[in-house]
Automatic annotation (TrEMBL):
GO terms for biological process: CAAX-box protein maturation. Keywords: Membrane, Transmembrane, Transmembrane helix. The chain crosses the membrane at residues 12-34, 40-57, 78-98, 104-128, 166-194, 215-235. This is CAAX prenyl protease 2/Lysostaphin resistance protein A-like domain-containing protein. One of its GO terms (molecular function) is endopeptidase activity. It comes from Homoserinimonas hongtaonis. InterPro entries: CAAX_protease, Rce1/LyrA-like_dom.
């Protein structure tokens, strides 16, 4: 993998993305056999996250891929990540699902912690950095965001309807662009991992409510668009962004 990264950073990212998709599908298949949702997917994704962490840290790439603490000046430029906190908590206004038990909640939390780490590292870290090494910042932001959204097609195999899938892809693209911009502004993916996990957890544990879900979707798009516009101003204002370091 190190040789592939040196030869083609983009293909290096693609291989890791495919590995992640494969592991999720294998985990879901085993979980279905066991009869307990996420029972195999959660530990497999967590294991992949550990492998990814060791792969990056042992090769000295942690800073390059954003596994670093957030500096105070960069924290202020992100508006304290308040828009992300609002987006993550919005879904909880729907209330919790009635069918939840301790095991289901625990497996969901563990799975989404792994998903948050793995997806942020491979999409915002590997893919975004790979594209940026061969192209411009705007292209890296847009392409990585689009790829992140389209990558959610894998959820068709998880029982999502066509309409649900379209909505999820659209939201994922918008959020993917915003998260890529945040990485460009701050140079760290650590807060993005936390948001990603919390956003997925709130989505999986919240109750279904078709009327209010439409309002939340609209609010998510509006907040994300406004946040993206602000981050674009920050990037233009400061010229040399952290990604050039």
């Amino acid at each position: 993998m190190k040789k592939l990264r040196a030869a083609s950073p983009i293909w290096h990212a693609v291989v890791w993305i495919l590995a992640y998709v494969l592991i999720v599908n294998v985990g879901d298949w085993i979980s279905a056999i066991i009869g307990v949702p996420n029972s195999a997917t959660a530990p497999l994704v967590l294991l992949l996250s550990i492998v990814l962490f060791l792969y990056v840290t042992r090769n000295g790439w942690a800073r390059y891929y954003g596994l670093i603490a957030l500096r105070r000046d960069q924290f202020q430029r992100t508006l304290l990540y308040i828009p992300l906190v609002v987006l993550a908590l919005l879904q909880f206004t729907l209330g919790l699902r009635a069918d939840l038990d301790v095991r289901a909640v625990l497996l969901t939390v563990l799975l989404m912690l792994g998903v948050g780490f793995a997806e942020e590292l491979v999409f915002r870290g590997f893919l975004f950095r790979g594209i940026l090494s061969e192209s411009t910042l705007p292209r890296a932001i847009i392409i990585s965001g689009l790829t992140f959204g389209v990558g959610h097609l894998v959820n068709l195999a998880r029982g999502y309807s066509g309409a649900e899938q379209i909505v999820q892809i659209a939201v994922a693209i918008v959020l993917g662009v915003v998260l890529a911009m945040l990485f460009a502004v701050s140079g760290t993916i650590v807060p993005l991992i936390a948001f990603h996990a919390l956003f997925n957890i709130s989505g999986d544990l919240s109750a279904a409510n078709s009327d209010r879900e439409g309002l939340i979707l609209a609010a998510t798009i509006v907040i994300s668009a406004g946040y993206a516009a602000y981050l674009a101003v920050v990037l233009r204002k400061h010229g040399a962004h952290p990604m050039s370091a």
